[in-house]
Design a protein that fits this description.
Length: 70
């Protein structure tokens, strides 16, 4: 069994969907799809994307990186 991508774990842990990220926080489904499809590590996403994810989860950037970065 393969391990889930960090972004898939993030969505599950915070009860979010790609649709909700786009509608409520402006993070496009194309971006989230690309991150997962290309197996992009957390440390390689754009700062703006990380900021939107942190905001959606109610975390600081540092907390988000500590939890999902390598």
């Amino acid at each position: 069994m393969s391990e889930k991508h960090w972004l898939e774990r993030f969505l599950e842990e915070y009860g979010l969907t790609r649709y909700r990220l786009e509608k409520d926080f402006g993070l496009s489904q194309k971006t989230t799809h690309s991150i997962i499809a290309n197996n992009t590590p957390f440390d390689k996403i754009q700062l703006k994307t990380a900021q939107l994810l942190a905001k959606a989860a109610g975390l600081t950037l540092e907390q988000l990186k500590e939890k999902y970065g390598k």
